[in-house]
Design goal:
Blueprint lengths: L15 E2 L7 H10 L6 E5 L8 E7 L2 E7 L5 E5 L14 E3 L2 E3 L6 E3 L4 E3 L20 E7 L2 E5 L7 H5 L2 H9 L6 E11 L3 H6 L7 H4 L1 H11 L6 H6 L3 E5 L2 E7 L16 H26 E8 L3 E2 L3 E5 L5 E10 L4 H15 L4 H18 L8 E2 L7 E2 L7 E3 L6 H15 L24
Antiparallel strand pairs: 1-19, 2-11, 3-4, 3-6, 4-5, 5-10, 7-8, 8-9, 10-11, 12-18, 13-14, 13-21, 14-15, 15-16, 17-18, 20-21
The structure holds FE2/S2 (inorganic) cluster and fe (ii) ion (FE2).
The site of fe (ii) ion has 5 residues, from helix 10.
Length: 445
């Protein structure tokens, strides 16, 4: 660690993590600028704005943003702040509109952000107002397989470079079908937790047999799989990989069994198996045989705050996070599959979800510990699996030897440091793309 760097919160040789990053207001302010002001942020899905002039209200960090599709079908990410005195120009969650009129004084913007009309332009402004410089502030927007990302950073790399080899894994869920995916939701709720607690949890399989003991027993009994005891977790052939801040857990599966998802049960398992088999030729064409048949994405996070599919951890202060939980389904999947996924996803990871409630309690406690005057003087210990990760001949990224490891968490906080210490994107390292992307699937879907 460079002694001149402002943030040195994770010790890579011991795994000790400074707890103050979960509650300190100054750190949080810096995060809003250095992390959320720079990174590519997941803001929605193309299926939320399918038609020309559709819009969907979302957030980039704490900044309110309107995701629009203009009359030509192009996507825009517009800061929802009138350039006159700052009123919000959109006050609802979604809709269809060619223009947005500010309800304070009536300045009116096109859905591509341009300021089109100002009351009293001649009478009040003497025709001296430069409308062309007063459009809604626009973010850069790019998509990956229908998922919409945006960044405020003009010097950010392309989204493709940003995702890098993580896409090799992400494709196995987000990019399976020719028809793409469809986002249902979101369900939204607030929790008194720091946003990072749930991001780092995406690679924490160590907690499952303890925190989720009762939920796991119900699941195992009802579904029959996957078994989730400590023994099963330690013996699991599943692995972790890390690329550019993105944490991946995955299963190397060669058993022609579909990826486990909430919504599978004894009643629906046959449906999922049939769907898996019926779509395999298409998936194989799109992803190549190896990824289609063997690689199954598990829990994952996309730096900084995209978690578990299309789900966002929106920061609302150091001690509060707004959860936006969508369910992503293959657009062309049978309705029974969509229904099972919708119910299963909400029942397990929705606001009152069985697994979610176990998790939230932990994240609250981690956040509270950071506020304890004495507690925060003692670092977290993230030493598990230190020195047991590296390149792998078959899998891209930095791969942990074992499934139960804190390698991804250590690297997540190192990535956080890289963003927090960098003066600009020129100082944020990016791993080159080295994976072989067999098949026809592309960034565009
Ligand atoms: S604040 Fe929007 S028109 Fe005045
Ligand atoms: Fe959990």
């Amino acid at each position: 660690m460079d002694a001149n760097q402002k943030y040195a919160v994770i010790d890579p040789t011991t795994g000790k993590l400074d707890r103050r990053i979960f509650s300190d207001a100054a750190v949080y302010d810096d995060e809003m600028e250095k992390v959320f002001g720079r990174a590519w942020l997941m803001i929605g899905h193309e299926s939320l704005v399918p038609a020309p002039d559709d819009f969907f209200h979302t957030y980039m960090g704490e900044d309110p943003v309107i995701l629009t599709r203009d009359g030509q079908g192009r996507l825009h990410g517009l800061l929802n702040t009138c350039r006159h005195r700052g009123n919000r120009v959109v006050r609802c969650d979604d809709g269809n509109a060619k223009r947005f009129m500010c309800s304070y004084h009536g300045w009116t913007y096109r859905n591509d952000g341009a300021l089109e009309y100002v009351p009293g332009e001649a009478e009040a402004y003497y025709d001296a107002l430069d409308k062309s410089s007063l459009g809604l502030v626009e973010a850069r927007v790019e998509t990956y397989a229908g998922v919409v990302f945006a960044t405020w950073a003009k010097d950010a790399p392309s989204l493709e470079a940003y995702l890098g080899d993580a896409r090799w894994y992400l494709d196995t869920v987000f990019n399976r079908r020719d028809g793409g995916m469809q986002a249902l939701g979101p369900m939204k709720w607030l929790e008194p937790v720091n946003w990072k607690t749930l991001v780092d949890n995406c690679s924490d399989n160590y907690h499952v047999p303890t925190s989720h003991l009762s939920s796991a027993r119900v699941q195992t009994r009802y579904i029959g799989r996957p078994p989730l005891s400590h023994e099963d977790q330690f013996a699991s052939p599943n692995q972790h990989a890390f690329v550019n801040g993105h944490s991946i857990t995955f299963r190397d599966a060669d058993d022609n069994v579909p990826r486990f998802v909430h919504g599978m049960s004894k009643d629906t398992m046959r449906l999922f198996q049939q769907y898996h088999e019926a779509t395999m030729p298409e998936v194989e064409r799109r992803l190549g045989a190896f990824r289609a048949r063997r690689v199954q994405l598990g829990n994952h996070s996309i730096f900084p705050n995209g978690i578990l599919g299309l789900r966002m951890a929106l920061p609302r202060g150091p001690l509060k996070t707004e959860f936006w939980h969508f369910v992503l389904v293959d657009r062309d999947a049978p309705d029974e599959i969509k229904r099972a996924l919708r119910i299963g996803s909400q029942a397990n990871n929705g606001a009152a979800g069985m697994f979610e409630q176990d998790d939230v309690d932990n994240w609250r406690q981690v956040t509270l510990a950071s506020m304890s005057r004495l507690g925060r003087q003692h670092p977290q210990d993230l030493s598990m699996g230190l020195g047991h990760a590296g390149p792998h001949p078959d899998y891209p990224g930095l791969v942990s030897e074992r499934y139960i490891s804190e390698n991804n968490q250590r690297l997540f906080y190192r990535r956080w440091e890289e963003f927090m210490n960098a003066a600009s994107w020129a100082h944020i390292p990016l791993d080159p793309i080295t994976a072989r992307f067999d098949g026809t699937a592309t960034m565009r879907g």
